[in-house]
Amino acid sequence: MRNPYYLLIIYFDEQQVLNYFLSIKNSFFLVIGVLLTFNGSCRSLDDIVSSGKINVAVYADYPPFSFIDDDKATGIDIDIARKIADGLGVKLELTWMTPGETTEDDFRNYLWKGHIIHRNKADVMMRAPYDRAFSQKRDDVGLLVNELVHMFAPYHRESWQIIHNTQILPKVETMAMFQYHTIGAEIDSIPHFYLTSAFGGKLRENTLHYSSNAKAFKALEESEVAAVMGIRSQISYLSQFVDRNQFSLATNAFPLIGKQKWDLGLAVFSDYRALAYEIGDVITHLVTSGEMEKIFQHYYVVYEMPPYYQH
Q: Residue 31: pLDDT above 50?
């Protein structure tokens, strides 16, 4: 009996036949790889509605946005996620994210590929940057870095904030005042790098670092530092736990820090624009109706509406 590949060899030389079957093998493994990559994948709007549930990714242990209090999930992002689920008429499931080194890592691990350990992916991710330059960022060969992610629906404009002890420092007029007064910040945070490197390092000696903003606040109450700098939402949230007659939120600017303000939104896998449109409608209603601001106020957080809605 003739070799089944005989006819191929008649019309093509052996190397061509070998290359043909190698290409088939490579295509097979490519398909398998794609199937494995999208196992347990994020889902379309129709899939979510038919299943009766939506999975939203939030950052673990990240007050005031997402944390556990008395064995219950709570926080600003949790409340918004519940509103999204209600708007779609489905139940809410949460995926608690451990942040990677970059936002791109978080997109990969929780939206379009899955973590190397569990491969589980969420349908929606909270606290995604809403920034055109970031969404259009390209790699060394000109390809979009975040091609597989659609970022949309900004719900909050974030900024930096200082809280100060008015008995030591009655008013914060400029950052130059911290050449003469101590200030605390969470270690390895942007405020920490800013305070230790900006202005030619003139603030470095008066900058103390702490493992968390909460511990920096404790140092503030004990007069170890005259002020604390951090993200506005976290600083305003923590300010509810101290004497507001003695500790006040400053209104100064932050020269040389780069971005003074930035918008936070949501993200989905890029193929699911219909899902993004539906969720976007929910977020737009929350923002324009004033409900979003009430959610932030519940946690004593200063809210600022993104310019996207300010027509």
A: no
